[in-house]
Amino acid sequence: MIYLDYQATTPLAPEAREAMLRWLDGPDGTGFGNPHSPHKMGRLAAAAIELARDRVASLFPEGGRVIFTSGATEAINLAMRGTQGANGKNSISFSAIEHSAVGDTALSLGKTHELTVDPDGQCNIAQDMPDETWLVAVMQVNNEIGAIQPTGEWYRRAKEANALFLCDAVQAYGKISVTGADMIAISAHKFHGPKGIGALWVRDGLDLGEVQTGGGQEGGLRGGTLSPALCAGLGAAAKEAKDRMDQDGEHIQLLWDKARDMFGGWELNGGADRRWQGNLNVRKAGLDVARLMSDARSVCFSAGSACASGSGRPSRVLKAIGLSNEQAKSSIRLGFGRYTTMEDIETGIGAILDAAKEQGV
Predict the structure, then answer these.
(1) Which whole number is the average pLDDT over 304-310?
(2) Cβ–Cβ contacts within 10 Å for residue 61, how many?
């Protein structure tokens, strides 16, 4: 089985796994303590969580705090619901290619305004926003086409409009530098950490309203016992990503060049520039993607984002950049990264191309 779906999830880093095992029970059986207990086992577990918090914070801008969550979806909900109606305004502006965690939450909170993108997937900062906008949300790297947005400029634009800025950095964190924002959401399993944990970074001086009641953990914002194992895994994954960011980037550049060459004759969805190159979204006219995925079943890849695959609907992101229904439905997405080998690319894409040829496209 060849795995080429890194936007959906990434393999767990050995360093993260090792860090987690210590806090499941540990070699001496004392690693299972409740981090909110005052005794020694609890204090040890709490110290592990704070070490993880520091490691996660090291990849964020200075001047903020890290709140652990179950993942980016919860982090986004905490950010949006915890600041609802800031500055007395009542509208949210978000890009047309945001993850549904942003779009659906915004719709549930009231008035919204969609920011358009160009065919490359870029969200132009010059476009108008309603005067009543209290929150602007633009993701740093898109999960379907890899477009890298000028989020630092969007942050400045939001400040000029007296609005808060939320950045979904799920596909950026641990891969490229995360730029300024009021709030930034991440998820561990997108950069070789465990599933079930993420974080929200909040700028110093910004107060959030309590969204989840009960226990008072995480500064009174999120009730519930933290998992030292998951926090440790997240922290270890963040440390490893920081230590080898340049090395990972160089490796992915080589994989991208080879993959692009093999898909000669296929159309690239989104721009080739200002793009995270671990994301390759391509299309071929007349391609039956469902049949392709069945015929090339030894390769794990996607027909769109993992959250939308299987719905039968054309990708909302591909539609937003101007593709027709037919073009969107003839598109596939491949994701690769740290643990992908050149052999994986050659063999996996070779199998996809052979299956496509069987369709006569």
Answers:
(1) 51
(2) 16
Amino acid at 357: K
pLDDT at site 221: 86
In this structure, what DSSP letter does residue 67 have?
E
Catalytic residue among 123, 167, 300, 307: 307
Q: What is the pLDDT of residues 215-252, one digit of tens each?
A: 778 888 888 899 999 999 999 999 999 999 999 999 99
SS3 341: coil
Contact criterion met (CB below 8 Å) for 317 and 145: yes
Q: Which of 59, 83, 79 is nearest to 67 (CA)?
A: 79
Q: Which helix (H) or strand (E) covers residue 98, if one does? A: none
Amino acid in position 269: N
pLDDT band with cut points at 50, 70 and 90 for residue 305: very low
Q: Rounding to the nearest 10 degrees, give the CA dihedral for residues 98, 211, 135, 124.
A: -20
Q: What is the pLDDT of residues 157-191, one digit of tens each?
A: 999 999 999 999 999 999 999 989 999 999 999 99
Q: Is 123 a catalytic residue?
A: no
Report the 10 Å Cβ neighbour count for 326: 12
- The answer, as to whether pTM is greater than 0.90, is yes
Three-class SS of residue 200?
strand
pLDDT for the residue 98? 97
Q: Average pLDDT of 95-121?
A: 96
Q: How far apart are the first and last CA of the chain?
A: 25
Helix (H, G, I), strand (E, B) or coil at 152: helix
Determine the Cα–Cα distance for residues 60 and 174; give it in Å rounded to an integer.
10
Would you list the domain boundaries of the chain?
2-8+244-358, 14-243
CA distances to 53, 77, 95, 234, 265 from 109, rounded to whole Å, are 30, 10, 16, 30, 44
In the block, which residue shows the tokens 């070779």?
350
CATH number for the region 14-243 comes to 3.40.640.10
Instruction: Give the CATH class of 2-8+244-358.
Output: alpha beta
The average confidence (pLDDT) of the chain is 94
Residue 38 makes CB contacts below 8 A (sequence gap 6+) with: none
The first and second tokens of residue 171, run together, are 């596909």
